[in-house]
Amino acid sequence: MRVDLFDFELPPERIALRPARPRDAARMLVIPGQGTLGNLSVRDLPRLLRAGDVLVFNDTRVIPAQLEGRRGDARIGATLHKRLDLRRWQAFVRNAKRLREGDTVEFVAGVTATAEERFPDGSWTLAFGGEEPVEILLERAGQMPLPPYIAGKRPTDEADLEDYQTIFAREAGAVAAPTAALHFTPELLAALDEAGVARETLTLHVGAGTFLPVKAEDTEAHAMHSEWGRIDAATAERLNAARKSGGRLIAVGTTSLRLIESAAAEDGTIMPFEGDTAIFITPGYRFRAIDGLMTNFHLPRSTLFMLVSALMGLERMKAAYGHAIADEYRFYSYGDASLLLPGED
Predict the structure, then answer these.
(1) Do β-strands 112-118 and 104-107 pair in parallel, antiparallel, or remain unpaired?
(2) Nearest CA-CA partner of 114 in 290, 124, 97
(3) Is the entire prediction scored with pTM above 0.90?
(4) Which of 42, 140, 217, 257 could lock 109 by a disulfide, CB 3.0 to 4.6 Å apart?
């Protein structure tokens, strides 16, 4: 499909620079497969779901993956993207034209890394020096990697250390938050428990590639970034049992959805999964295992807007986004939520 079909105009003032406080006070646009859109709140979620439904969360934890340093007299910025092994990460590099294979980049706090190899997409392999775990080095030298549409408007601060982690964050390795889950609070989880809505967690380490624009003119020419994920056997078994008994699987965030669909067999059975996925979901895709999606509002021409258009239909999502813009919903990572229920009227 032509990429320009997924374009729309978003006024800059609709981009949220801070999250709602408290988190579950965010608005939520309910988008059924047919019928009227619903202007509700995240706090309304328990009454919109049914006993036996399962919310599926991503328990990845964002690491301080934004680094600033120097190679000689050149300033170098690096955003870690994907772990390759214990000491090596793939990274997107700012001012990469000043970097050559074998160069050492000196970051702050005595942290260094060697530029080993350049990938076709322009990213680099960075091999960190020393013997301390890389996680310790990042805690010392790194910053929280806010999305570029926020970082370009204000600096990262102490509030972001908490604001940009979900309540489920446990497995360190992401360089972007699974932002749909940022809306959840202990109070909301308690209300969901009372309503009989179950929850499960999986792990997908979100990479910085999630923010890369689609530069191709046609979706078939776009090379999707890969990310590492895991669904263990016990979780897969519980998800399959819930669906077999009539419960709906509602993915919280596109990361959870992409991993579930990567692990699903043709008949919809979710298999244990561990490894990389580069699944690219566009209109025409047949969803195998998920029944709904809670997600934030996404960038125009992005792979994520293509995904929600695949789930609900492109015209339906363009109309929903037009409604959200006109009604002053807050967009992107710190913005409001939407609940997509393709089987509902």
Answers:
(1) antiparallel
(2) 124
(3) yes
(4) 140
